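go over this record:
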Amino acid sequence: MKKETIGTFEIIIATILFGFIPVLVRFGSGLGAYNLSFFRILVAALFLFLLSMIFKRSYKIKPLKQYRKKIIFFGAIHGFIILAYFFAIQYLQVAQASLLIYSSAIWMTLFSSLILKEKITRRTFIALILSITGVVLVLSTGNLFSGLTFVGVLSGLFAGVSSGLVWVLSKTIKRYDRVSLTFWQNLIAIPFLLPLVFIKMPHFNLSNLTAVILLGVFCTVIPFVLVFKGLQKVKGQTGGILLLLDIVFSIFFAFVILGESPALKTIIGGILIIIGSYLASQ
């Protein structure tokens, strides 16, 4: 199997796991966005540390000696991306929040051209146009600029632009394996989000505790490692388009589990996003 094909599958599996995030955020809504964000990264860092202790040979975490400034920036912005993501989910419909956040594909294409000096191919350009058209269709289903939804819009846009930058930067950090990079990303984010816990002290129950654990392990550690690995095997532009599949999976899981029915425009937009992702992976 070709390296690019393996990378494509890794990113697709990651998007399926990322697709569960909005559902888990809704189940853990009693904790609030501040606490969910903090405990998500805390659980992720602890899980990876324990994994490295138990399976020392397979999951050894490399010390933070190289790319220090870049990785510290990487970790700090990671924490605020998660916080912005959760705010967007809190104030918007899942479809709207996911689409704003995963406008990261658009920014990845631009950052890949500026930072990685990747040429925008005709196929990638067509795939990007199809995907953007799908995004516009979904966003046209409601008014995103009234009341608290405006906070959600700003949060989603911040998460989208910042995510695009982070994914592209991850391709420039070549001397760290993906497990080590994911560990440092979450560990460094902890002190940046810790003060937010005191805004609303957490009160755990079975529902939100389960949501935090699942968010930290199955929706953070595993998919982030898969995405980082996948992005090393495919072009940054291609990876950006593939990550748009998260939108489709988020909408699907929201429909099946939360009962949020997507509008016709949302369905058509999702189809265009899938077509764009397919073209980008060829």
The chain is about 75% helix and 0% strand. Residues 3-54+66-281 form one domain.
